[in-house]
Description:
Blueprint: H1 2-7, H2 10-43, H3 45-48, H4 59-96
Helix pairs in contact: 2-4
Amino acid sequence: MAHQKYLDSPDFQKMVSTRNSIVAILTVLTLITYFGFIFLMAYGKETLGAKISENITIGLPIGVAVIVISWILTFTYANWANRKYDQMVEDIKGKIGG
């Protein structure tokens, strides 16, 4: 197969390895964030219920932080993909004439 030599090329292997590393890191950070919050809801009700003002508990800013962190992680991946990954794809396409 002609395409097999491109799949086995060091550039393609490096691109796939780099992408997999980024995805793994961001996935782990996402899982830690979400499951950490769920764990805290399950076992830290007193902590989340602690009032920081008359009508607001600490759970509210932590919940908002979970959402903001997910946006940051999404932005991080999109930014990396647009700046680095797309360039690596274009470089490989240029080498194979695609």
